[in-house]
Amino acid sequence: MGFRWFGQARSEASVETKASATGKIVALSAGAGRVVWSPRDTVSLTRAGFSGNPVGFRAVRLIAEAAAAVPLLCQDRERRYDTHPVLDLLRRPNPGQGRADLLEALIGQILLSGNGYVEAVGEGAKGLPAELHVLRSDRIAVVPGTDGWPEAYEYAVGGRKFRFEMAGSPDPICHIKSFHPLDDHYGLSPMQAAAVAVDVHNSASSWSKALLDNAARPSGAIIYKGVDGQGSLSPDQYDRLVTEMELHHQGARNAGRPMLLEGGLDWKPMGFSPSDMEFHETKKAAAREIAQAFGVPPMLIGIPGDATYANYAEAHRAFYRLTVLPLVSRVASALAWWLSEHMGAEIDLRPDPDQVPALAEERDQQWKRVGDAIFLTDSEKRAVLGLPPLSEG
């Protein structure tokens, strides 16, 4: 028996000595006490920042819808066209989409991933594509060539891949990307810049939901203390008190109605603790950071506590001037250069700020200022306003 005890002790001691010396460090590094961020790939960011976040969703939709509604001007070095095959193609790019649908999808992809891809399908009038389709950026991979430029684009879906060769001319794919200082082939999206703020905002929403599910605070508590120190009501007293509360103090009709307490009853209100209020302010600060990353004034999304702009009209003008028009100009220029290669003749697409209602006051001032400049000729005034020169006739 003593032998068995000695052997058992040796066995237990040997098991204890087999524990890894780095086990505690590994356990701590697995996530305890560390900040856990969501993945930074396009699909995860889209799900967390667009599909699962109301601020990111509204910012992307606001920019994409506003940009898709901006009228485009088509012109070359000599004249401006009211009708043109490029305008006809953009008016109905494919059987399932119109101009606004195509531009909204393209700009939405750029905002969410930093990259937008347009595919040319078939051949239509004057060498232009018969159809235009926006491809999902999470399914596209750039294949760089020996010189560093993309030699092909691979589109992968359902375990199958299709390769778009970029060796010939014109190119089958138009790749529009945002500026990325650390990547040669892919753009940096505003959603990536706002990823930390998105995680904070989503975590705050999850915390609020957990508070409601597990520890929601009532508006107050009724405390009973009898004359002789007893702290419990009789069943009849309890039922009478519950009935009085339901009849006279619950519902919208009884909101703000004063309570009449008797018989040792006392009312103790309950509210948010200072830490709860600080957490709420953190959520609003994260919402502002998300809106700022996309270039949307927080006032337009309804975020309270923002006084950056004097009024809503000023915020609206700044939104178009600083966010929408630069984005539309970049997308339109890229499409115009790509379609010019297909057509064999250079054309230019640019937004028409004169038809943007939010900028009407600024444009009126500019037209008046240029029109009153007596030191400018008519041709110079047209050049300042972005108009093509008049024909000789």
UniProtKB/TrEMBL annotation:
Record Pfam families: Phage_portal
InterPro entries referenced in this protein's UniProt entry, alphabetically: Phage/GTA_portal (IPR006944), Portal_HK97 (IPR006427)
Protein name as it appears in the record: Phage portal protein
